[in-house]
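Methods, example record. To illustrate the input and output format used throughout this study, we show the complete record for SDR family oxidoreductase. The sequence lines were provided to the predictor; the line carrying structure tokens was produced by it.
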Amino acid sequence: MQSIASVTAKVIVLTGASSGIGEATARHLARQGHYLYIGARRLDRLTALQDELRAEGGHVEAVQLDVTRPEDLQAIVSQAHAAHGRIDVLVNNAGVMPLSPLAALKIDEWNRTLDVNVRGVLHGIAAVLPIMQAQGQGHIVNIASVGAHQVWPSSAVYCASKFAVRAISDGLRQETDAIRVTLVSPGVVESELADHITDETTRAAMRDFRRIALPPQAVAQAIAYAIAQPDDVDVSELIVRPTASPY
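The corresponding predicted structure is encoded as:
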């Protein structure tokens, strides 16, 4: 099938691409003609998505990765850089949300949340930053949450991780005058995140909290909007909520 790539195509590395916002973003950006390197732990889903988008003419490479392993981020970035000689955009999207009250003492889940949501973002930045600095341009998009701006019961650790992503993003933005940094903070989005909540009380409460939700495509469009701006225009922060949601 004829390629759908355009002359404005960018080389984009995207984590957490096997479902939810990541999958929707991969579809949207591939259909815009960008060169995509998509990563996640579930290689079967990634490969199916890669094959589907390639059949449409998209340029997509699926790479299995775990963002808690810095070497995995280095590997996907190195693959993209070797093929194209540049990295234009990193979308740090991978995340987990195992909510619970602090009194439940789910320490393993706390640690997993910090490992994926905070260290995973830092590992991505570490992989692309030297390349982008050498290029004199680049764009890092970090996916946070409305939980980066407000805290609710049972979400203390999750919100702490997203507050950290917000702080990292603004700190990086201030440290460079050549690399764009965008923080995207979605409200409630249709996704699998809530399915991984093991605390039964919190799981039940989240059913009502998540009753009004955005389709992930809405967040994908926000990410694409930020990416599409000229190199001298930095969309520093976007909050994307369902119109009918109070959260």
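Annotations derived from this record:
The two ends are 44 Å apart (CA to CA).
The helical segments are 20-31, 43-55, 70-84, 107-135, 156-175, 200-209, 216-228.
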